[in-house]
Predict the structure of GGDEF-domain containing protein.
Amino acid sequence: IDLEAALRRALADEERVFVFYQPIVDATTGRVTAREALVRWHDADRGWVPPNQFVPVAEESGLIGDLGRLVLTRACQDATTWADGARVAVNISAEQLGRGTLVGEVREALAASGLPAGRLELEITETAMFTRAEASTQELAELTALGVRVALDDFGTGYSSLSHLIAFHIDKIKIDGSFVRESSESPASATVVRALISMAREMGLTTVAECVETEQELERLRNDGCTEIQGYLYGRPEPRPQDAQYVQALN
Ligand code: G
Ligand code: G
Ligand code: MN
Ligand code: NA
């Protein structure tokens, strides 16, 4: 059976579809402020299928609706169990945005879990914001009104236009990992990162740097005034405690 059919079945049974969580920490205190929800799927025939492979298939086949609701619902539920009160960040695909369904789904996930809206962040790429831009802008305004935070994901890699930061309701930008990686070797990339952080701060936006793997990167980002840090330096995406044994057995 092909990937799409296998994914359809997995989502229907919610079988071997997991949500992993990666910590996002305050750049100065190192305290966990949020965790990003990252979907994982283990197929009986294929083993672990990378999200880079199955998320696009879900988007093309319409399965992203089911996948998105599964992740959103579970992420909100799981976050209510976190003793540290950290926020949960959920990735929203372009296909979920601007269709008139997202606000209702978010309300439902919040109501079902009892998670306060202020503890939910949605990660949306610039490219996603572009699709059905007008409807997306409206939805983001409604979500912001609920108290949900909106982060611009993979910032700097899309059809970047700084005007988006003004046009859309954005609370934070996630500086793409490629800039962090390049900054160590390229002074130009380091300058771009510093400028982005500085501009975001002047606009009242917070910044998250992704893919931070070394102390040197952390030190530079901290000096640049970056608000939050995400990356293997602090932790990899990990299953929930109650899934850990099952996941271990699949590895
Ligand atoms: O760990 P990582 O390999 O999880 O993620 C690879 C890509 O898949 C990233 O672009 C990430 O944003 C995306 N991704 C991971 N989880 C989800 C999810 O729940 N929904 C969507 N739409 N994308 C996700
Ligand atoms: O597109 P998005 O930013 O949602 O995807 C985040 C991706 O980055 C996930 O695939 C996640 O597993 C990956 N990731 C998170 N931290 C690190 C890191 O420190 N190094 C690398 N190489 N990848 C990371
Ligand atoms: Mn993300
Ligand atoms: Na990202």
Summary: The chain has one domain: 3-250. Residues 108 and 153 are 24 Å apart (CA to CA). The mean pLDDT is 94.
